[in-house]
Amino acid sequence: MSKMIVGNWKMNGSVKLVDEFIAGLDKQVILGLPSIFIAYAHLKNPEMQIAAQDCSVFGDFGAHTGEISAKMLADVGCKYVILGHSERRKNMNSDTIDNILLKLRNVVQNKMTAILCVDENYMELLDKSISDFIKTHTNEIVIAYEPISAIGTGIIPSPDDINKSLKNIKLHINNVKTLYGGSVNTKNITEILSIPFSDGVLVGGASLNLYDINTMASYS
Ligand code: 13P
């Protein structure tokens, strides 16, 4: 089975870039778009596998100015939701363990797949409440291991170290699917995809380049 290739555009992109990806993206890639582009991309190319980068703790509709619910994301064709990214946990302080649990429930209830990001301190986030929930939803939740030291730095841990962490996570949670993220690019992709306990990659910066992300998909 081929490995998952997930892109995370973070707060980047434009209608022009979305158009380029709609026309040329390898079908296997799951693309984490800023929410403002999701409906547009889905309407123009319903085959595209789209991820959101967050969702609200509130489940469906209501008086919550500025929030976007999992129900709304599902309605506009989103199939995946990235949750708990370290950039959200560190800078905005909103993704507490309690909030992440609420968001995981909302994603699963709306029949999407959650990509839960954890960092070097993964055991802290994978506390009992979150682990118990994931254990009963291993088909709908994937864990992306993204060491903070590797995000956007070009410095990645050794394949052996990555493998050890992914193995620990799988031992902790019933063989859950795991991705590696942090400075993945066309040069290191083959090495990272060959890590035994990795089920794929979560790519940040390099996913903004259509040629690069398609090249990575071609190795999976
Ligand atoms: P980079 O690939 O830019 O290091 O980002 C990784 C990441 O944070 C993906 O979610």
Describe the structure.
By secondary structure, the chain is an alpha/beta fold. The chain has one domain: TIM Barrel, CATH 3.20.20. Helix content is 37%, strand content 17%. It has helices spanning 15-24, 38-44, 70-75, 86-91, 97-109, 122-125, 128-135, 159-172, 189-193, 210-218; strands spanning 4-8, 29-32, 49-52, 80-83, 113-118, 141-145, 177-181, 200-203. Strands 1-2-3-4-5-6-7-8 form an eight-stranded parallel barrel, surrounded by four helices. Strand 6, helix 8 and strand 7 form a beta-alpha-beta unit. The longest helix is centred in the C-terminal third of the chain and has 14 residues, at 159-172. The radius of gyration is 16 Å and the shape is globular. The termini are close together. The relative contact order is 0.16. The protein binds 1,3-dihydroxyacetonephosphate. The site of 1,3-dihydroxyacetonephosphate has 14 residues, from strand 8.
Task: Spell out the key features of this protein.
single chain; 220 residues; alpha/beta; TIM Barrel; 8 strands; 37% helix; binds 1,3-dihydroxyacetonephosphate
Q: Which helices and strands appear, and what pairs or packs with what?
A:
Elements: E1 4-8, H1 15-24, E2 29-32, H2 38-44, E3 49-52, H3 70-75, E4 80-83, H4 86-91, H5 97-109, E5 113-118, H6 122-125, H7 128-135, E6 141-145, H8 159-172, E7 177-181, H9 189-193, E8 200-203, H10 210-218
Parallel strand pairs: 1-2, 1-8, 2-3, 3-4, 4-5, 5-6, 6-7, 7-8
Bound molecules: 1,3-dihydroxyacetonephosphate.
Residues 8, 85, 146, 151-152, 181-184, 202-206 line the site of 1,3-dihydroxyacetonephosphate (13P).
